[in-house]
Hints:
Rieske Iron-sulfur Protein, mainly beta
Amino acid sequence: MAKHTVCKVDELPVGRMTAFKAEGRSVLVYHLEDGFFATQANCTHVFAPLARGKIVDGCRIQCPFHRAQFDIRSGEVVEWANFPPGVQLLNVVRGEKALKTYPVTIVKGEVRIEM
């Protein structure tokens, strides 16, 4: 696995996230109270950009389109798309799917993602 330096620790404050490209893929890096984490940058429902979403309860990312929520640490679905009313019809075709996550390490003050 290749390791990619995406930023310095002090460039991403706690409670924030930012998108990066690595190996041609969009990756979202989060700085939570308990460390740095990385997931794919697009929701698995209809591929909305999660960087436009928000961190909820300090550990979940909420999609800006249909409000699906994922655990940032594991990528697992916490709540599937539920907004606006009626989107559940689309959910028959677009079943729940976790986000891909990437291992993150900190080396000499740099945030590195393994791809």
